[in-house]
Amino acid sequence: MALSRGFRCCQRIFSWIPVIIITSVVLWSYYAYVFELCLFTLSNTLEKAAYLLVFHACFVMFLWTYWKSIFTPPSTPGKKFHLSYSDKERYDKEDRPDVQKHILMEVAKKLPIFTRTTSGAIRFCDRCQLLKPDRCHHCSVCETCVLKMDHHCPWVNNCVGFSNYKFFLLFLTYSMLYCVFIAATVFRYFLKFWSGELPNVQAKFHVLFLMFVALMFFLSLMFLFGYHCWLVTKNRSTLEAFSAPIFQTGPDKNGFNLGFRRNLIQVFGDERKLWFLPVFTSLGDGHFFPMRTQSESRNPLLGNEEQWDEDGGSDEESPAIQRDPSVTIHIES
Question: Which of the residues 38, 58, 139, 153 is marked catalytic?
Answer without folding.
Answer: 153
